[in-house]
Design brief:
Elements (H helix, E strand, L loop, with lengths): L14 H14 L11 E7 L4 E5 L12 H11 L5 E8 L9 H10 L4 E6 L4 E5 H4 L12
Parallel strand pairs: 3-4
Antiparallel strand pairs: 1-2, 1-3, 4-5
């Protein structure tokens, strides 16, 4: 199953922010979610303004799938991106869907100061941060080297 692109109202957002939200929706259209039917799109913006996207990819061996947030950040990192300012997660749900624990761990490692926007097809935009999603995170400082 793949998801259709959904436009969401972006009233009150700057053109750059509206484009970031729309990029997450466009990425969601590429989700491969034949097993759960739960399509997710993600878009990351770097401090330089570059946008990287990803969608969830499922596999019959369920644990081998990958969430949209990790697909997006792995793509960004392998293409040289650093210093992320925003993460948008787009789902067709009544309320925003926060990143799973594994995604939160990856985000705190590579985008600890990023704003996180959870957007829905109904126009709901919940705003938080990576640090708020994962307080007292296990990060490089926890290794006590």
């Amino acid at each position: 199953m793949t998801a259709a692109t959904t436009a969401v109202a972006v009233d009150g957002l700057s053109p750059a922010d509206a484009a970031l939200v729309q990029a997450a929706w466009a990425a969601r259209a590429g989700a491969q979610c034949a097993y759960s039917g739960f399509a997710v799109g993600a878009a990351l913006r770097t401090a330089a303004g570059t946008v990287h996207t990803g969608a969830n990819v499922e596999n019959a061996s369920y644990t081998l799938g990958c969430c949209a947030e990790r697909v997006a950040i792995f793509h960004a990192l392998t293409h040289g991106a650093r210093r992320f300012t925003h993460v948008v997660v787009a789902t067709d749900t009544a309320r925003g869907t926060a990143p799973c624990g594994a995604c939160r761990q990856i985000l705190v490692e590579f985008a600890p100061d990023a704003a996180v926007w959870l957007v829905t097809a109904r126009g709901v935009v919940e705003r938080t941060t990576v640090r708020e999603l994962l307080p007292r995170a296990f990060d490089a400082d926890a290794l006590d080297r």
